[in-house]
Amino acid sequence: MRANEVADWELRVRHFRVLYLVDTVVRIVEIKRIGEKRNNRFFFRGKPEDL
Q: How many domains does the chain have?
């Protein structure tokens, strides 16, 4: 995954992406965004966004 300003990690579930951060000290996963990836574009709430 290329670095972005939203999150350090990306989970792929078919054509959806879950962008999240992991805090290993307190063992917390913080979900930042859930969106759809079509071709090389991310869509959040149906609108395209650049990361």
A: 1
